[in-house]
Design brief:
This protein is of the alpha/beta class and 298 residues long. It has twelve helices and eleven strands. It folds into two domains: 211 residues, Malonyl-Coenzyme A Acyl Carrier Protein, domain 2 (3-Layer(aba) Sandwich), CATH 3.40.366.10; 64 residues, Alpha-Beta Plaits (2-Layer Sandwich). The strands form two sheets. Strands 8-7-2-1-10-11 form a six-stranded mixed sheet, sandwiched between helices. The chain has a five-stranded mixed sheet with strand order 6-3-5-4-9.
Length: 298
């Protein structure tokens, strides 16, 4: 693995898999990071990563914590092995929390508290109202937006590529939308999440989320972070943390993130399990190559 400065890409929920910790149990920095996350969350993250079962690993409360702890642990292990500070870092959806912790803006405990606040407040707000997200691949954006006109309770929540989108809102409306767009889509379906993330339904929760995290004092980042909302460079700790707090209600525009990568002109490396962001980035810009830090340093 090239240890020179690069742009790091931190993946979001959906990248968790049984066996994702293979080889990492011998990396001290990774183990320390995951143990800290286990102590704070109370969840058996190492066991879930190593043994599952998959249904428990993907449980709404477990999956984001697993992804956060693993990605940050991977970053810290590689830094210990000599990886230079990145030129910048980006995170997709809750992967932005991993980037915040890796950059030293907040502690992993703070990020876990943010995840917990989102879960607690979402469960209370949407009790009795099944919510979620759906993905649609292979349908032009104009067609997706046109179909959404018939479902005002839904919102376009992710622009992951030229023809890769997610929509958030009530589960009943999502199923109706899939019934229409699924006929022409290359692939479509419901995502394994229970909240309408990255859409206007989450906006009402932001004041309460901010109050829950009011004691957090963000530090200056060790490297700039890229907003997954519009591709802006976030160079201050306060600005990056504000973005993290608001991110659950802000749509994700990975095309804007990739446009920022073009200007930075540095190698790209995915810092976490799987190749979620390698795929999305290549779809947005076919000339980009994205390496992976999932292989252990030693």
């Amino acid at each position: 693995m090239d240890l020179r400065p690069s742009i790091l890409l931190f993946p979001g929920q959906g990248t968790e898999a049984v066996g994702m910790s293979a080889g990492w149990e011998r990396q001290g920095a990774w183990v320390e990071t995951v143990q800290a996350a286990e102590r704070h969350s109370g969840y058996p993250l190492r066991r879930l990563m190593a043994e599952g079962p998959l249904v428990d690993l993907r449980f709404q409360r477990h999956a984001p914590c697993v992804v956060l702890a693993h990605s940050v642990g991977v970053y810290r292990a590689w830094r210990e092995a000599g990886l230079q500070l990145p030129v910048a870092a980006a995170g997709h959806s809750m992967g932005f929390y991993s980037a915040l912790v890796a950059a030293g803006v907040v502690s992993i405990e703070d990020a876990l508290d943010l995840l917990s606040a989102v879960e607690d407040l979402s469960e209370a707000a949407f009790a009795g109202r099944p919510m979620g997200m759906a993905f649609i691949i292979g349908v032009p954006e104009l067609d997706v937006r046109q179909a959404l006109l018939a479902h005002p309770a839904l919102a376009l929540s992710n622009r992951n590529g030229q023809a890769q989108f997610t929509v958030s809102g009530p589960r009943e409306d999502l199923e109706a939308l899939l019934g229409v767009l699924g006929q022409t889509a290359f692939k479509s379906g419901l995502l394994p999440v229970q909240h309408p993330l990255h859409g206007p339904h989450m906006a009402a929760l932001l004041p309460a989320i901010a109050r829950r995290l009011a004691a957090v004092i963000p530090a200056q980042p060790a490297f700039p972070l890229v907003s997954h909302f519009d591709g802006r460079m976030l160079a201050s700790g306060a600005g990056a943390w504000d973005e993290g707090l608001a991110s659950v209600a802000l749509p994700v525009d990975w095309l804007a993130v990739v446009a920022q990568f073009r200007g930075l002109a540095s190698p790209l490396a995915e810092c976490g399990h799987g190749s979620q962001l390698a795929g999305l980035t290549r779809w947005a810009e076919r000339t980009f190559q994205v390496s992976s830090l999932q292989g252990t340093p030693f």
